[in-house]
Fold TIGR02611 family protein.
Amino acid sequence: MAETRTDDKPADEARGGIHGFLDRFRTTRMGRLGVRIAVTAVGGAVVVAGLIMIPFPGPGWAVVIAGLAILALEYVWAHHLMSFTSRQVKAWLHWVGRQHLAVRLLIGVGCFVFVAAILWISLKLSFGFDYIQWGLGELGTPT
């Protein structure tokens, strides 16, 4: 009887994709250690970069999730966290999809206002640029 792995595939059947690529390196002790170190370094750096980007407009959370996906190649806890995150995002999207159009519009406007506020704060603190004052000045409105 063939030895089976946790994914119920025969042990002698090669996997494809990134898992197969990494499996070729994992055939030796140094290879396993090297893969673990590389995955930890790259995944950790991506997660940290994403965490730094969260308060700013842009893909902060997406970068954190991408870093977790990299860490999930080697760590079970990261895989569990990715599964949990996926379930929560799907539940949120299904909940929003079931809401009345007015609620969905309110959520969209709230997200827009939040991003605009973060952008305003970021530009004001980083560069001293107040785009609200600038916009009012362009419109000829006294400030």
Remarks:
- The chain is about 75% helix and 0% strand.
- Confidence is low (pLDDT under 50) at residues 1-6.
- Residues 1-75 form one domain.
- The helical segments are 17-25, 29-53, 60-71, 76-98, 101-127, 131-138.
